[in-house]
Amino acid sequence: xxxxxxxxxxxxxxxxxxxxxxxxxxxxxxxxxxxxxxxxxxxxxxxxxxxxxxxxxxxxxxxxxxxxxxxxxxxxxxxxxxxxxxxxxxxxxxxxxxxxxxxxxxxxxxxxxxxxxxxxxxxxxxxxxxxxxxxxxxxxxxxxxxxxxxxxxxxxxxxxxxxxxxxxxxxxxxxxxxxxxxxxxxxxxxxxxxxxxxxxxxxxxxxxxxxxxxxxxxxxxxxxxxxxxxxxxxx
Length: 235
What we know:
- The protein folds into 2 domains: 4-127, Cobalt-precorrin-4 Transmethylase, domain 1 (3-Layer(aba) Sandwich), CATH 3.40.1010.10; 132-232, Methyltransferase, Cobalt-precorrin-4 Transmethylase, Domain 2.
- The protein has helices at residues 19-27, 46-53, 73-91, 111-119, 132-139, 160-168, 182-191, 214-217, and strands spanning 4-8, 30-37, 43-44, 61-65, 96-100, 124-127, 150-155, 171-176, 195-201, 209-211, 226-232.
- Strands 1, 2, 3, 4, 5 and 6 form a 6-stranded mixed beta sheet that branches. A 5-stranded mixed beta sheet has the order 7-8-11-9-10, with helices on both faces.
- The protein has 8 helices and 11 strands.
- The mean pLDDT is 93.
- The longest helix is centred in the middle third of the chain and has 19 residues, at 73-91.
- The termini are far apart.
- It is an enzyme of class 2 (transferase).
- One of its GO terms (biological process) is cobalamin biosynthetic process.
- Belongs to the precorrin methyltransferase family.
């Protein structure tokens, strides 16, 4: 019996999916795909958009609503429903895939389902993908880390003091999902204008934005799909 596959889609540009990931989608009978409710009553799904651009048949894509909230109860309930549906299809002999943007094992809440299936003894497979900060580095022509340089990736729950400590320890710092720490990033820029700030938003999509001017960043409110790469110009 085929394992339930967790397919990483990459950051947004359809061509950045791996060949293994694409083949898994092409062979799947059912693909579970998150969508996010928006204010006008509609739902958006960046993951579904990627798959449709890859010519994955829409009738194989089963969307599920995933609320974007710090309160995770509704999201976990949605994942529990996907778990039950995927398990039923798996027992019926169907090839099942569950998708995640970026890499399914890197800051991806869908891994909750993977761990639950694994605990139940169900065969699972995680297919690697390109995380957003790697695609961002390529977009900006950056050598993110070289030789003995250290790289630290942190979520957007941080402070200007933590960023300062990491930079002074000769780390390149990547902050994911900046919407949670907009004010602290602005404060860090004011305290340390000498740092090299590279800001990326909606990497790999038509709404992609790349800014390397720290002063310009001070005026922005950062959305959920944003990241920042910070280095000390002296290192």
